[in-house]
Amino acid sequence: MIWSKVIRGITLLSLTGPGIAGNLFLFVGHAYAFLTRPEKKPIHLILAQLAFANTIIICTKGSKDITVCFHLRNGLGTATCKTVFYLGRVARGLSMCTTCLLSVVQALTISPRTSSWRKLKPRTAWQVLPSLLLFWILNSLISSNLLSYITAAQSTNGSGITPSGSHPYCHMLPSGLTVRWLFLTLMALRDIISQSLMGWSSGYMAFRLCKHRRSVLHLRSSRSRRNSSPETRATRSALLLMACFLLFYWADFIFSFCIGSFLTNDHTVLNMKLFLTLGYASLSPFVLISRASHQPPRRGARGDVGKVHPAPPPPGAER
């Protein structure tokens, strides 16, 4: 029992500390670039919102698990429970929708200039701002039921159920069947649409990358063949980001389903679920940062003609 708490604490600290630092670095870098540069690029707003949403996920999930690990029950009232669970649910949906938008924008960016899809590519940050605001509104409404049904454990007298499956200090009051299925349907539609778009855009990016590599392979020297181009590395970073999200999402879904179905309290399973819940939010900024750090500077406009545009890099890099 003691070792399980130690392992859970180590897992929690190893994900929350670096995750918050990486997302704050990403957020500050893109916010600074958006505010100071004359050209307002869509990528700056998209990645700033993604980093902000991931930071909220880490903070809310981390605070819930810290109260469980250290038995800090006195600090959790009904208002705190509502705030923590509501912000966590909103941020999770916001992270999914923003990742989807990032994938779609990148797919439009690398589409051929003669393609009709290319006309949908946002040219300035103001063209993606309505979509980002819409994500906030939709996810706030979809998660609004938590504000009515989440309460502190001492207020339920044991009559509630835990919304997270592993948090003993905040309970969810029983809701009507109509309300429950309404919000479940809205969340399912959001997830299905977002992940379908992510799957389509990722497949399209992979197809365009392979086609581009085949078309220019005969023009490259042997030295160039050994070294991947910046465009190749950048597109791979976008594909890796989408793959990470889908992997963590579905693994977390399967673990949550198993925990809910079998009501297991196995500490290994709960520690795995903690890692899967925080995995994408904590690791995604380092995927972007590490990929951009290996990209050499652009050579100039002439060298860019006919090239596939790279995926959105982290702070300070240019597309």
From TrEMBL:
SUPFAM superfamilies according to UniProt: Family A G protein-coupled receptor-like
Localization, UniProt: Cell membrane
InterPro entries for this protein: GPCR_Rhodpsn_7TM (IPR017452), Vmron_rcpt_1 (IPR004072)
Molecular-function GO terms, alphabetical: pheromone receptor activity
Domain G-protein coupled receptors family 1 profile: from-to ranges: 22-288
A Pfam family per the record: V1R
Cellular component terms (Gene Ontology): plasma membrane
Residue ranges, compositional bias (Pro residues): 310-319
Main location: membrane
Record's keyword terms, sorted: Cell membrane, G-protein coupled receptor, Glycoprotein, Membrane, Pheromone response, Receptor, Transducer, Transmembrane, Transmembrane helix
Ranges where the record places region Disordered: 294-319
Bilayer-crossing regions: 12-35, 93-111, 132-152, 238-263, 269-289
Membrane topology: Multi-pass membrane protein
Swiss-Prot/TrEMBL GO biological process terms: response to pheromone; sensory perception of chemical stimulus
Function: Putative pheromone receptor.
Family of the protein in this entry: Belongs to the G-protein coupled receptor 1 family.
Protein name: Vomeronasal type-1 receptor
Organism from which the protein derives: Panthera tigris altaica
